[in-house]
Amino acid sequence: MTTGARAPQAESVQAAPGTFSVAGSRPVEVGLLLPTREALIFGDSDPAPLLDFATNAESLGFASIWVGESLLARPRFEPLTLLAAVAARTSRITIGTAVLLPALHQAVPLAQATATLDRISHGRLVLGVGAAAPLPATAAELATVGVRMEDRARRVLDNVARCKALWTGQDAQGIDLLPKPHQPKGPSVWLGAAGPKMLERTGQSFDGWLPISPTAEVFAAGLARVGSAAAAAGRNPRDLTMAVYLNVSIDDDAAKALAEQRAYMEAYYGTPFEFQKTIQACCAGSADEVRSWIAGYVSAGAQHVVIRPTTTTDYATQVSRLHALLSN
User: Fold this and answer.
1) What are the structural domains of the chain?
2) Global pTM exceeds 0.85
């Protein structure tokens, strides 16, 4: 993957630091997913451009930078190690996982690693977590660490709860884990979930929600369910961050944008593009089309938008186009 054209210099386009107003919508925080898998399957496995992309995102005023996780199903750079390097190269931008897979980890070393990363970043860490898709490759990946497929959702909930207890010195086994995170309660944890039970758990005990809802209408319905669960648990739904993860390809030639997104998604997942569009948010087209589409999610209640540029060749150009459409 090439770095592409030189990205534009930062401009004073945000309604507040790290926010953009999309097609006249209320200001919303916008972040970028780093191409940590793409660097392996489309590039030469050099992490240096990823760090340059992260520093450029900060200079352009994006609110956050994100990385995903997979050991074997969809291999990429290890997320916490890479985010430590990003934290050392940046000073303001939020760093996060979209998403980390707690089922692959043991809770105690995971709590220590994330607390260390929160210290390195001076409290800029957000942990997006999920259970991973119910696919054969996921089952094989989990098996390598001794976890059964049917246990993955439970392990997400148990490991997150244990991490929170370890971060705050309230571990049931009496472990006093050091270091403690920079943030007094530990990093915010956002759950990537779509099923009814996990939406309910999001509202009950998580700090935010980070779905891949295929339409704004699906997102709005899930948001309502999370909010209701939060209220029923005695929490203020406004205390949760409602985020969304969107796949975007921008080109004045809509057919070219769609072809690029199709090639990307099929190479990335090894499944038909038509199937992927039914389970996650995808938009390919002109800047105006993409802007309007993103605005639909903001109108539905998204407070933080994580954008994955879906390109096999030129990440920097896609970021430049995204920045331009957000700035207008």
Assistant:
1) 19-327 (3.20.20.30)
2) yes
